[in-house]
Specification:
Length: about 180
């Protein structure tokens, strides 16, 4: 009787220590992608692929409350000499980075001396709507893609001052990295 009790206790203990998990096959995740052979020469405002966009001088009083904007200035990103691009479209993606305010996608003022405060720079699409740098919403193809025609394409963007609060007078300087998506 004691042997049976000991054996029963051992079996019960072993079952209690055994993992009680069930495994089921629920589905498959398939990952796909495309590596494009398309390449183009890139120029900003007919210059090089790196450029400075100058915003106009404005009064700090025009940026007296959060969300106020002024000084919208267009710039172009033009592609030329595109190879392997027949039937493709392109768009620009403004990357996340150290100058990007992750809360609203604006570009933080990094002026070293005499810096204006409570002001950042907001990027705009061709229709004047705000783009959030680093945010996937920029990849809405109906708003931002441009077809490559005759081995080239031109994309129009804008930049403007954006108040984070009541701005003070001073300099504004920032930058953002961009990449070209070939669709």
């Amino acid at each position: 009787m004691i042997k049976q009790l000991t054996l029963a206790s051992a079996i019960t203990a072993a079952m209690a220590l055994a993992p009680l998990t069930a495994h089921a096959y629920d589905g498959t995740v398939t990952i796909t992608g495309t590596l494009s052979g398309a390449t183009c020469d890139v120029k900003i405002n007919n210059g090089s692929n790196n450029a400075t966009v100058g915003l106009p001088g404005v009064s700090a009083s025009t940026l007296s409350s959060k969300g106020a904007t002024t000084g919208a200035t267009n710039f172009t990103i033009a592609l030329s000499n595109c190879t392997n691009a027949t039937g493709k479209s392109v768009r620009t993606f403004f990357e996340a980075g150290p100058n990007v305010n992750t809360a609203d996608g604006t570009l933080t003022n990094r002026a070293v001396s005499n810096a204006a405060t409570n002001v950042s720079v907001q990027l705009l699409d061709i229709d004047g709507y705000a783009l959030k740098a680093g945010d996937a919403s920029q990849r809405n193809p109906s708003k931002t893609s441009v077809p490559i025609v005759n081995n080239g394409a031109t994309m129009v963007y804008g930049a403007q001052y954006y108040a984070q609060g009541a701005a003070t007078a001073g300099d504004v300087s920032t930058s953002v990295t961009y990449s070209i998506d070939y669709l």
